[in-house]
Amino acid sequence: MTDAMILVTVLRNPLSTSALDAKGWIALLTIARAEQLIGTLAHRLAGQDIPVSVAAILEDARTNAEYQKRTALWEADCAHRALASYSGKVVLMKGTAYVAAGLKAGEGRHIGDLDIMVAQSDLPQVEAMLLNEGGWEWVKEDAYDDAYYRDHMHELPPMIHKERDRMIDVHHTILPVTAKPRPDAAVMLAEAIALSSVRPEPVEGQQARDVLPSCPSTGSGRTDGLYIFTPPDMVIHCAAHLIADGDLTGGLRNLWDMHCLLVEFDSAEFWLELQSRAQHHQLWPTVQRAVRLSFQLYGTQIPKDWHSWNAQDKGYIARITARDEWGRGTRKFIRLIFYVRSHWLRMPPLMLAEHLWVKWRKDKR
Amino acid sequence: MHEFRVRVGPASFRIGSAWEAPLVEMRRLYQGYPTPDIPDFTVRLEATSFLRRFIRPSVAINGDYMLPDAAPLPLSQGLLAAEMGMNLQMALGWRRQLILHASAVEKGGKALIMTGVSGSGKSTLSTLLGLKGWRFLGDEFALIDPVTGEAVPYPRMISLKNQAIAAMEEHAIGARFGPLMQETPKGDIRHLVPPVDAIARMNERAKPALLLFPRFGYASAIREISPSEVFMRLTQASTNYVALGEAGFHALTRFVKEVPARAIDYQNGDEATALVDQLWAECA
After folding, report:
1. CA B37, CA B28: separation in Å to the nearest integer?
2. Residues contacting B229, CB < 8 A, separation 6+
3. Are strands B73-74 and A136-138 parallel, antiparallel or unpaired?
């Protein structure tokens, strides 16, 4: 039976497409779309000898990725302007950060919402500025959900822009506050790098690898720009998002981010720093697992002492690749296990029971 | 999954269905259309739940591109579900040409494009003209090539709604119709297979020569319409103008500069065709 390993194989080794027949191509393209990796696939296969009909589909994907990048940077710009008089750091996260910094992980990447992080104590101020000056508004007016976000989540309830119809997620840390690991958000913020010191504008075809890993954290109190995490924190957030938050939906995409970041940041010092930072953020097992999975699926070069084997990794891979040639999610039971796990990770048992009770009663009404 | 593949103009589809019935109907209607090797899009007609595959079957419209809260349809409207799925793929995924929500017909290598809100009669008008010496290019999407400015035919099944069904049943004698689907979310719907030449010549492009904004139900009239307003209305009529970025802007500004535009009001088909003939002679 076909699963998403067909996509993993091609992302890992683009030349392997020479073995594909029409049926194989259809499965590859459909799964890549379902996993939101079609733009990435288009980048990986650029310049290769492929069937004409496939080339046209990938060209559409490239056009679309350009559009998403343009829109993501524009949204970041708009948020930046709305927060012009805010004196704290505004850190771009995930896809928007990758394209803004010109990282490989951003090439062809699907980008949905704008994710930013600010200091927890500044949330009321930032929220007010986005609502009053930026033109964003709340997505849902549900008192329970609103209170739930504010009390227990790592982000404000999602806001959507009135005119542009784009969502913004304002984080104050990288995991729900009810989760077991407690990452040190204050340190992440304090050491975040000014985007202007990396590159003011992303330049086509040029990589940030020369600039970014050696880039010192500013620490200069520069407050007029947007920021990104340091390389280790960026990887740690990626791992936390992939492994410790959610049910691994979009796992192949997040793991591709992981692979690209690790390839780009690779150096002896980086791996040492990644370990000590992951330990500091209480996310060492999480980061280890994400690095292992990246190695196992995408063949990422990782240091020898990171090669360990874990019995559960197989389960993760089965979940991440659970997709058939029609783009349908498969392996219902494994999906269910990871779904239950995501709630288990997010909150302690008693709280989970209460949460499900409230949600169930709301559904009944 | 039962499977059916079809190419309509430049776009090709793979329809997968949990039931055979909607695809039997599609095979009948899309007879004579080419079958693609590697389709551009996948549409899936799936049961909303395990039970709903068998008991009061309910069709969820899924595929490469999906709407988060698309309402499912009863199996008797499976053909409509497939058509809606195909339209959705085009509207959300197509990037090769600028898509205008418009109908189009051709004569002498030149294209007449008609755009307007639902109920303006653009679909019925294009079908009527297709029976009166024009070549039918499409009743739903006009595709404008960003490089050449040409209209690329997209002659999908014509989707007749409500009163238009009876009207066309009278006119299109001997044509192939789909089943009458009553009380769908869009009212009564019946599909009509486009004329033979529309399908045979679906790869032949045409130069846009006239743009009309038809409006049904008002006394016969012709109004000038400013280029700025045409531009604004077309940005709203396009599903991929923003996504195409600079290429979309150039395609649209060029279209507005080169193609004369008029708004027309009409109360019946004869009035409309008379107005079209008059404007075509004056402008195109």
Report:
1. 20
2. none
3. unpaired
Beta-carbon separation of A327 and B93 below 8 A: no
Phi and psi for B282 in degrees, rounded to 5?
-75, -45
Distance from CA of A126 to the nearest CA of B (A): 29
What CA–CA distance (Å, rounded) separates B198 from B194?
6
Compute the distance between CA of residue A28 and CA of residue B64 in angstroms, rounded to an integer. 12
Q: Which residue has the tokens 């504008």?
A: A201
Neighbours of A357 (CB within 10 A): 10
Q: Is B36 in Cβ contact with A53 (below 8 Å)? A: yes
**Measured between beta carbons, which residues in chain B are less than 8 angstroms from residue A33?**
42, 64
A59:B96 CB<8 A: yes
> Which residues in chain A are contacts of B90 at CB distance < 8 A?
none
Q: Which residues of A touch B247 (CB under 8 A)?
A: 63
pLDDT in tens, B56-71: 889 999 999 999 888 8
Output the CA–CA distances (angstroms, integers) from residue A134 to A90, A111, A117, A241, B61, in the order listed. 15, 21, 16, 27, 36
> CA-based Rg of chain B, rounded to a whole angstrom?
19
Q: Which residues of A are less than 8 Å from B243 in CB distance? A: 63-64, 67
Question: Is some CB atom of chain A closer than 8 A to the CB atom of B63?
Answer: yes
- The 3-class SS string of A167-178 reads EEEEECCCCCCC
Instruction: Identify residue B261 by its one-letter amino acid code.
Output: A
B38, B40, B64 member nearest A22 (Cβ): B38
Cα–Cα nearest to A328, from B54, B64, B2, B20: B64
> Is the interface score ipTM higher than 0.85?
yes
AA letter at A120:
Q
**Which of A36, A313, A45, A16 minimizes the C-alpha distance to B64?**
A36
Instruction: Tell me the pLDDT tens digit for each residue of B183-239.
Output: 898 899 999 999 999 999 999 999 999 999 999 989 999 999 999 999 999 999 999
Decide the pairing of beta strands A193-194 and A226-228.
antiparallel
